[in-house]
Amino acid sequence: MARAGLTTERVVLAAADLADEIGFENVTVAALARQFGVKDASMYAHVKNVRELRERIALLASGEMIDRIAGAVAGRAGKDALVAFADAYRAYALERPGRYRATHTQLDPALVAGTTIYHRTTEVTYGMLRAYGLSEPDLTDAVRLLRSTFHGYCSLEAIGGFGAPRDVRTSWRHALDALHVALENWPRAEDGNQA
Questions:
Q1: What global pTM score does this model have?
Q2: CA 164 → CA 79, 91, 119, 151, 157, distances in Å?
Q3: For residue 126, is pLDDT > 60?
Q4: What is the C-alpha separation between 80 and 194, in angstroms, rounded?
Q5: Statement: residue 194 has pLDDT above 70
Q6: DSSP string of 126-174?
Q7: CA 98 to CA 93: how far, in whole Å?
Q8: Helix, strand, coil percentages in the chain from 3-state DSSP, rounded to 5
Q9: What mean pLDDT, rounded, does the chain reach?
Q10: Contact 99/58 with Cβ under 8 angstroms?
Q11: How many Å apart are CA 135 and CA 132, to the nearest integer?
């Protein structure tokens, strides 16, 4: 029987907060039960196992992140949209490290099927890139470049991986300038540049 006051939503939100505190990989059903002061068995009324708990954290975090990004890029285009998108991405990654790590989890397709999060993520990302005049397969390639750049930068920044004395925010701005130039001068697949 579920403990009064506990809902799946409340359990998942608490698990996401815990991920930010102790690291996504350290979130377990037992650790979460301790947070609520209940026995582990009480948690199983809301999630089947630790895998489902972590997948639900990933869905929550993905939704939060794309909401933040969508709000940042609304009404913007071109470089302004790129910078707003990137800054919102970076802010979320640095402010919510456990949740951010969760967004890179491979999810059960059945769990994802009942949501619109990934469709919305595609819409917002492709919408931001629309000003650059890209079409498939160039859009996919551009998204992969942006995601790997943003993720790599944020991951290194989070662990203090930039040792040079230059301010990391200045380097971030220059990286975004370079990405803007790359997107404006994208080598089009239709020009015979396909592998």
A1: 0.90
A2: 27, 21, 39, 19, 12
A3: yes
A4: 29
A5: no
A6: HHHHGGGT--TTHHHHHHHHHHHHHHHHHHHHHTT---SSS-HHHHHHH
A7: 9
A8: 70, 0, 30
A9: 91
A10: no
A11: 9
